[in-house]
Amino acid sequence: MAGNIHPRAALLDHGRSGGDFAAGPPPSTLAAQLVENISASTKSSRSDENSELKGFFAIIQRVKDDPALLKTPEERVENNHMLLYVYARVVLDGIRLDDPFLDWAHVRTEGIKAINFLKFTIKETPLVLKHKVNGQEFMFRGQEPLWVWLLPQLLRLLGHPQCIELTEGIEGFLQYLILTVAQTRGLWDLAPAIMLYLRTTLSRLLDYLQNLSIVPSSEGILRDLSLPPDFAVSRHLGDDLSRLNQLTYRVERMPQALQQCLSLGDALSYPLLSGDVAFDMVSSFSESVVWLLDALVDMRSFQKRYESVFPGSPLHIIQKTLQIVQALSNKKGVGVSLRNKAVTLLVLLCGEMASSPDNSPMLDSTDEETRRIYCVALAAITKACIGDRPLGRLAVSKLVDETSLLYPEMQSETDIWRTTQTLRQVTATPQPELLDNDLHPSKFQDEYVREAIEALSMTYKEPDVDPEDRTKRRKVLSTDHSAMSVLVNSIMESLGLSSEDDDNWANFEQQYL
User: Fold this and answer.
1) Alpha-carbon gap, residue 169 to 113, rounded angstroms
2) Where in the sequence is the domain holding 404, given as residue range(s)?
3) Using 50, 70 and 90 to split pLDDT, how confident is the model at 492?
């Protein structure tokens, strides 16, 4: 697999293409300036910690004054490791989530800056992610690679009620981290460990939330939920397990746990959904699909369990399942059983939503996004059912028959009605050669739904002609026929022929023209 490297994955081992270093100011100098901006506000209750940071700031200043001090890619990696360490220590570690006097607006601003800084520095030297320290020059670092030390400091903020604005940025960072590993040959050996780290963290969350001894309450306080599981971290520490607590984080509120499940699910599905061919280079990125589908089932299960105190829509899980179904349908080498597993899950989720008294897309109060996702999902299900009768029977049972009983007066001429009827006709036995003209893609109102229906590549009946138009057409044809008879009679008289068959002008044409 590694023999044929796609151009986007064929980066140098230090993670930069050849011309990037010459463009603009040296990245390490820019990074040093960013870190310098936070040095003035650095405070610590311990003099040894202050001494460590002051020593690093002195090195940063020297590199800022003379960027040529960094002569090799290895020196750049070491320097950027130091920058990330200092920045995380000062900014991320400085966020005390239990501090009642914390300026949350300032925290959110600094959090966004920190995420951008991390991505910027990793982009310059991707190999910094696997960097390990030698000796005791870093007080809060051990034998673990940098990514193991860095992730808990971001993940503890993910989904926190006061840091909701950081959710998209942290999710984006996780996806960027995974993509960087896939695109950098020197980081491919990290792929199994990173995917295991994310999977076990999500598994721990799911197991905890499905524990029947936990009684849902409006307070939503969680106890003894430490992430990631010890074994996902200890494998990177060797014999030094004393630092285990420094590389984990705690989730203490239910809303944060629920959000972390969704966000980690998004990160784990990213290799499949992104479509980037770099992920095809390492098998570890494609081994989580079956597991992820099961995880989505668990997510929906605990979502329903806690909805009385923490209401949540199934829309995100349905949309994620739909994206997986679409990605699998476009990916070569995917087995039928895996595709059917994904489609079956989508059918069950859509059936559940359709029968919901609160979230059904058939309700007048339903928003357009819900209707759109539901209709596009039905189109994807219809496509999968073509030629698969067992799958078609399940889809019709859940999405046609049951919804017809619940909503017998479903408004016709709507996108939901048309997608439902399309599913009904495509799965009929025998399948009609032509679908009703009312189901033609041009009849659909929503652009995205129309495109999904067009992708089915079905053929449709010609539009029915209005009865009045038929009468008018007959009159025109009758008039045209009489005029033709007059012309034929005139010609026959000129030729001196018999006019016995003067009305049969077709025979005349065959004989004499």
Assistant:
1) 10
2) 313-463
3) low
Question: From start to end of 213-329, where are the E strands?
Answer: 226-227, 249-250
Q: Find the DSSP H helices in 26-103.
A: 27-39, 47-65, 73-87
Q: What is the pLDDT of residue 404?
A: 86
- The torsion angles phi and psi of 37, rounded to 5 degrees, stand at -65, -25
CA distance 318 to 346: 7
Residue 457 is predicted with a pLDDT of 94
Tell me whether residue 218 is exposed, middle or buried, using C-beta atoms within 10 angstroms of its C-beta: 0 to 12, 13 to 18, 19 or more.
Answer: exposed
Judge contact between 130 and 187, C-beta under 8 A: yes
**pLDDT given at position 481:** 47
In a domain, 418, yes or no: yes
Cβ partners under 8 Å of residue 325, min gap 6: 339, 342, 343, 346, 380, 381, 384
pLDDT the model gives residue 500 = 52
Please answer whether residues 455 and 432 qualify as being in contact, where contact means their C-beta atoms are separated by less than 8 angstroms. Answer: no
CB 301 within 8 A of CB 336: no
Residue 359 domain-assigned? yes
Are 154 and 173 in contact by the 8 Å Cβ rule? The answer is yes
pLDDT at 7: 31
Alpha carbons 266 and 404: distance in angstroms, whole number: 34
In angstroms, the CA 153 to CA 147 distance is 10
Confidence of residue 494 (pLDDT cuts 50, 70, 90): low
| 339: in domain | yes
Q: Which of the four pLDDT bands, split at 50, 70 and 90, describes residue 5?
A: very low
Helix axes 289-305, 315-330, angle to 10 degrees: 170
The model's pLDDT over 73-110, given as tens digits with 9 standing for 90+, comes to 999 999 999 999 998 988 898 888 888 888 888 888 88
C-alpha closest to that of 435 among 445, 424, 444, 446: 424
pLDDT digits (tens, 9 = 90+) for 136-193: 778 889 889 999 999 999 999 999 988 999 999 999 999 999 999 999 999 999 999 9
Question: Is the Cβ–Cβ distance between 302 and 233 less than 8 Å?
Answer: no
Domain membership of residue 256 (yes or no) is no
Nearest CA-CA partner of 150 in 230, 85, 213, 99: 85
| Structural domains in the chain (count) | 1
One DSSP character per residue, 168-236 reads HHHHHHHHHHHHHHHHBGGGGGGHHHHHHHHHHHHHHHHHHHT-TTSPP-SS-B--S-EES-HHHHHTT
Task: For 272-315, write each residue's pLDDT tens digit.
Answer: 999 899 999 999 998 899 999 999 999 999 899 888 888 888 99
Tokens of residue 274, six digits: 């992104």
For residue 506, count other CB atoms closer than 10 A to its CB: 11
Say what the pLDDT of residue 266 is.
97
Task: State the distance between the two ends of the chain, measured CA to CA, in whole angstroms.
Answer: 72
123 vs 67, 119, 181, 227, 288, CA distance in Å?
Answer: 18, 6, 11, 27, 26
Tell me, rounded to whole angstroms, the distance of Cα 207 from its chain centroid: 23
